[in-house]
């Protein structure tokens, strides 16, 4: 594997980040800009290419890596499915379009998959052969790393933990449009919806977590219910997938963590009692670092 630095891109619904990543996973430099999602895919790609171009003079001559929202076709680097966070993103040939703009090969993967790869390389999953990562943000995403490689599944969508049935969410609507799924209760959107149903006040999930930390009873109840649902689901997934470690990432995950840990410990079958649940370590750099790792692997 090359010893040169590599550029990794994180293309999300609200922000795009480019990072220059060294051969040990250290972020050497970064660029960031709002994602012009409402202006369409071409504007999103132009922004990503501009940020990457700023860093390319300090990188090697190899590929650029990209972690992006949406389901990515692992064979072509095109987007098979995406939500309205990036309007028109479904069908976008991200790998080919950025390769034309940057003049070099581009490797593309789902953003949560990339985050899991980054954590396994340079974060809280370092040294673990099999890692399950769940990212709790506006929505809910997941990824499974086996022997240092992402398990993408048959369609590039493996790890979609958002759509697991969850006790307590039966009357709550998931982002997919159906009811009763884990994302409907254990995500930023789920926190906001549950708080609105309980109090009538419409605030973002982040503020629900802040109010819970400040001691507000209604917010604490909502947060604890979400954390318990997440912890129980993760315990079940451990029995199914048999990972070495489970990582939780994302802003909402930190607020839920105490309740999540308690529910996880209570529900974990004895045969997997030694599988730890930990907070992820790379924060906002995880996707870009994992994307850079994908690019480095392409040169091996």
TrEMBL record:
Top-level taxon: Bacteria
InterPro entries: ATPase_NBD (IPR043129), ROK (IPR000600)
SUPFAM superfamilies xref list: Actin-like ATPase domain (SSF53067)
PANTHER family named in the record: N-ACETYLMANNOSAMINE KINASE, ROK (REPRESSOR, ORF, KINASE) FAMILY
Family: Belongs to the ROK (NagC/XylR) family.
Protein name as it appears in the record: ROK family protein
Naturally occurring in which organism (per UniProt): Micromonospora costi
């Amino acid at each position: 594997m090359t010893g040169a630095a590599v550029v990794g891109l994180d293309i999300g619904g609200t922000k795009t980040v480019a990072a220059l990543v060294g051969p040990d996973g250290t972020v050497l430099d970064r660029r960031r800009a709002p994602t012009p999602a409402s202006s369409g895919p071409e504007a999103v790609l132009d922004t990503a290419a501009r940020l990457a171009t700023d860093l390319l003079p300090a990188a090697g001559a190899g590929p650029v890596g990209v972690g992006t929202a949406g389901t990515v076709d692992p064979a072509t680097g095109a987007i098979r499915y995406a939500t309205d966070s990036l309007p028109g993103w479904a069908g976008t040939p991200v790998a080919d379009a950025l390769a034309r703009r940057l003049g070099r090969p581009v490797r593309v993967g789902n953003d949560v998959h990339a985050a899991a790869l980054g954590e396994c390389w340079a974060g809280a999953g370092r040294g673990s052969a099999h890692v399950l990562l769940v990212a709790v943000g506006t929505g809910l995403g997941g990824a499974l790393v086996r022997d240092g490689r992402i398990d993408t599944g048959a369609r590039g969508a493996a790890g979609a933990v958002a759509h697991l049935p969850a006790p307590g969410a039966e009357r709550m609507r998931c982002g997919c449009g159906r009811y009763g799924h884990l994302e409907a209760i254990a995500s930023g959107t789920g926190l906001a919806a549950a708080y609105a149903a309980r109090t009538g006040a419409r605030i973002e999930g982040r503020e629900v977590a802040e109010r819970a930390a400040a001691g507000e009873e209604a917010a604490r109840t909502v947060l604890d219910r979400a954390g318990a649902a997440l912890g129980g689901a993760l315990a079940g997934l451990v029995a199914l997938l048999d990972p070495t470690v489970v990582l939780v990432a994302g802003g909402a995950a930190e607020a839920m963590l105490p309740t999540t840990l308690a529910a996880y410990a209570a529900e974990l079958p004895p045969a997997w009692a030694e599988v730890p649940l930990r907070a992820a370590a790379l924060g906002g750099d995880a996707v870009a670092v994992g994307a850079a790792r994908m690019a480095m692997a392409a040169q091996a």
